[in-house]
Structure formats: C-alpha cells, structure tokens
Amino acid sequence: MFINESQDHGISYPPNSSPIIQAYRPRLLFCPLFAWNAITGGKFISTFLVNLSPALFTDGVIGMTLSIQYTVIALLAGWGGRLADMEEKRQNRVFWGWGRLKVMCWGVFLGTFAFMGHGLPNVLKAVSSNDRSDDNDDTLLFPWKVELGWYIAMRILWAVSFVLTAPAMDGLALAHLSAIDDATQQDFGQERMYGAIWWGGASLIAGIGIDYFGFDFLYVMAVASGLLVYLATGLYLWGIGRDTTGSFTKVENDADIISGTQYAPIDEDIRTKELFLKLCPSCYGSALILFVFLFAMGLALVDNLAFLYFNWLGSSNTIDGWTVVFTVILELPLFYLSPTLLKRFGPGKLLLVAGAAYVIRVVGYSMIPKGHLWLILILEMLHGISYACSKTGSVEYIARMTPKGQEASSQGLLFTIRFLGVVAGLFVGGWTQQTFGGRIMYLGMAALVFLGMVILLIAESCSTENHFIDNECSSDESEHLLRKSDSACSASSAFADEQTQQWVRNLKYDSLNKYTKDW
What is the pTM of this model? Predict the structure, then answer.
C-alpha cells in the first residue's frame, strides 16, 4: 500500500546491478496523523466540550473557545512552518527529512498531552466527591472561570501542536514529491487521499465508541493514534535510509550543494512579508487569497459547529461518525485525480467548484426538517468536492509561487490565511447560531462564500496573466528524464550529460520552473 515499487520506464540496467529500492511515500505519515487529528481536533470536539461541562459550554462559548484556538493557529502557523524549514536545513546533514519530522513529532506529543489534559477537572471533581462525607453537590471545587480558563488553555496548547504538525507534514510531502523522479508536487492530493481514508475511519470508530463507552473512549484513541504516528515516522525514516535512488542523500559538505550532486534545501532567507507578496503578486492572486479566507470562514462552521446542529435535528454520535465517512466518499477519487484536474482546469477553477459545492451543501442544511437525517448523509458527500478541490487548488497555487526550501514556510502562511478565516467564521457563526439558529447561520455563510466566488470569477475572467498553464511535454523520453518538473520537459534535449541533468533538477523549485522554462 505504501511502497512505491520501482519501474524501469524502458531503461536497461546492468545484469549484476542490485534492484532499485525506493523510500516510502508521505502517505505512510498522512494516515496515522489524520487519524490522530480526527480524534484530538476533529468534528467531535464541540460535542466533546459539551460533555465535559454541559452548563458551561453553550453554542456561543464553544464558538468563542474554538475561535481562540484558531486565532493561535493563525498567528503562529507561519512560525511553525518556518521552524520546520529551519530544522530541516540544520538536520539535513544528518538525515533527509528528520528536521521536519522532529518538529511534527513534538507537535503530536504536545497535542496528545493537551487532549488528555481536558479530563483533569472532571478527575479532580470525582476525587473530591469521593473524599467528601456529605452529599452536597452544590459546592464547587473551583469557580467556573477557572474551569473555562483551563479548557481554553488546553485548546491553545493543542493549537500550538497543530502549528507544529500540519505545515511540517505538508512541507515534507511537497519536498519529498519534488525530490523523486516519478512524481511532482501536483501529486500532493494523491498522497493526502490516504489520510482522508483514515480520517473517516477514525471518526466512524470514535462515533460508535462514544455511543458504547462514552466520551472517555476518545482518550484511548488519542494515545493509540499518537503512538501510530511515531511508529510510522520510524518506518518512514527507515525507508529513507534504505533508498537507493539517490534522491534523499544527506549533505556531506557545502561543495555538494553548489555542484548540485546532492539534494538539499536552498538556504534562502525570505521574510514572511516577502513570502506573502510572492503569493499574491497580482489582482488575480489577491482575489484567490480572499476566496481562500472567505471559504475558510464557511468551512469552519461545518467542521466545528455542524454536530451541534445535527444533534438539534435528532442525530446521535454514531450517525455523526457516519457523516464523516460520507464526507470522504467523493473526496478520495478527487484527491486521486488531482494531478489530472490541476492540469486540465488549474487551481482557480477548482476553488470555484469547491465554493459551489459548499453553497449547495449549507443551503441544503437550512432546509432539512427535524428527523430526516438521511438527507444529511446525502449533503455530506458534497464536502468531498468542496474540501478536496479547495485543498488541492490552494496548496498547488502556493507551491507554484514558493521558492525551494520554503515549502513548509509557505504552507504555514497558507494555514495563517485559512485560520484567520476560521476565527472570523466561528465568532460570527457561534453568535448567529445561538441567537438566530443554525438555519440562518448557514444561509448567511452561503451568501458570503458566494460573494467570494463572484470576486474570484471576475478576477479570473479579467486577468491577462496565466499563472497555471504547464508547458506541454512533446517527448516521452524527456518526460521520464524530468518527470518531477513537467514544465521543463522541452529542455531535456539540451542535456549533454547526467551531471547537467541532475543540476537542473536541483534548481527546480516549483511547477513554473523559472530556471529552465526558457531553455
């Protein structure tokens, strides 16, 4: 499932040569990491908080708590990605990928610790209740402000863990795909598809487990999924160590970086402001970033407050788990087809499709009568379209505009933009749902996302710059030689020897391939 078997692509090897062994792909890490994220920060968090303290966590308080959590992510996501890139540059001389993996593993440990910390107030209450001789339950162990402050602190700590894990994982995956010969950064969606499978499976198991064993079941799953992440990390590093393709050779000295004979991130110091300006260099780029922000506002409501609305309609935890499974039904094939879709339509059109699917979905939410939960399952399938297209389109756009060595930093900046939208969405959505109800909340957000679609569509139709057309490959042999850089296929005929070919490969840092496209 995880091993990418070697293919000769028509190349004949010496009869006595050893077989080529390729490293495990990033999908090996996406699987347990997404399962862990589904438990510690997935769609059950809102109902999990209500179970911890029903009187404390109203819809408005939940919205405020999650908004604080995502504010921390928005403020620190760029720092987390930059930290991962810096660690990778330092640790690359020891082992390829270890810098970003180390940051990710620390994030998983911190997030698991924070999630387990949610149970401390109830444990203290239980111990205090057993120690008391009277049955007076009206005596509080500590004021409600202290209890709420503790829960918020745990969500903030989890937010820091997400800042460390998500940009590092995305940056590692993009760097891995860029390094190997038989893939490009456009294959990111295919790798992430496996994570979506585990996200849905973990959510379904969590929903069933909650109905049978209560919300304490999530604590067990959090620890188990965290351990799986560490096991997968060790297996991934072992695969990198036994790789014989030369794509992940560690850097021995600076001369190897200059000659381009070994892979290493380019040591280029780009400030966050300069990196942001690279992401939106035109009106079209600015419109696309604005849409990502507005779409994140809308997606925040279905990712964080939907289960509260579903429970109002008469749902159960098991049905909630099944809704997550239905969200990935269309997500999986779209992630698998993401390279083809990107080449055919480009990131901008995929984002428009994502917006249309979201609008149809939440307008449908507002019309579902109580008790008709089967309609929810049908509408949840649209999440696969909206999420897969938005994730694929936004990640690819950012990757194309990012210098090599800054993969995690740029993805961290993308997370900042998204979670600023999430914070705004939860503040507005939590208050709206508590004041006017869920139906009005979703109708209002549908109108806001539709406005973002109109702005992006106008910008795309009026733009004279085409940022997203890859150069066509006219030669199959050229495509093999420079498969990881599709736009450079026409340049392969200029290669005089293998060393020059490797040098050009190492120069490539995004799918626009600025160094080689004019050869």
Answer: 0.68
